Amino acid sequence: MLWEVLGSALVGLAVALVAGRRFADRFRDRSLVLVTGPAAALCGGVITRVVLGPGYALPTFVAAALVAAALLSLLVRRGGPAAGRPHVGAA
After folding, report:
1. DSSP string covering 3-49, please?
2. pTM here?
3. Which residue among 20, 25, 33, 81 is least packed, with the fewest CB closer than 10 Å?
4. Looking at residues 13-33, what average pLDDT do you find?
5. How far is CA 89 from CA 38, 77, 79, 83, in A?
6. pLDDT at residue 84 is higher than 80
7. Rounded to whole angstroms, how far apart are CA atoms 6 and 22?
């Protein structure tokens, strides 16, 4: 179980590094991204291991990556409206 936990955290760190580098302009704080990725992957990996049981390392890592990506997507900053389109509620 220890290797799956460490592997999940590394998968989350890898997802956070890729997201932070690829979409650097969309995140407000890089340190928050680098903490959220491993923490989310760790939670996703542990929950998947509890549900599936031992012996399912690959699905555990995949679920960890998906949970990390899902939580990182919540940190994405919204862009402004497209050019020429008014804000909602603008007079």
Report:
1. HHHHHHHHHHHHHHHHHHHHTGGG-S-HHHHHHHHHHHHHHHHHHHH
2. 0.80
3. 25
4. 91
5. 39, 21, 17, 16
6. no
7. 24
